[in-house]
Design brief:
It contains 4 helices and 3 strands. The protein has 84 residues and is of the alpha+beta class. It has a 3-stranded mixed sheet with strand order 1-2-3.
Length: 84
């Protein structure tokens, strides 16, 4: 796992009680897209969290996005969040 993905994992773990997280880098699947930027990531986060499952889905996703606000502005082009 590269340093940026490790940073994303650590930020989420530090700020939300989670049981497990899997980060999938889908950037290579988007290379032919019109606005593709090799400096930005297309990520999927699969998060196992009893806490996030206990709140409504929109609020849970907003919490994750708030934690990654800086990264979303600078390094993440697309983010898919799956809460299990």
């Amino acid at each position: 796992m590269n340093d940026f993905l490790k940073l994303v994992e650590e930020k989420v773990k530090k700020n939300i009680k989670i049981e497990n997280i899997l980060i999938i880098d889908n950037s290579s699947k988007h290379k032919k897209h019109k606005f593709f930027d090799s400096n930005k990531y297309h990520l999927t986060l699969e998060i196992e969290s009893d806490y996030l499952k206990s709140i409504d889905k929109v609020h849970a996703q907003r919490q994750v996005m708030k934690i990654l606000d800086k990264e979303l502005k600078e390094k993440i082009h697309a983010l898919e969040i799956k809460i299990k």
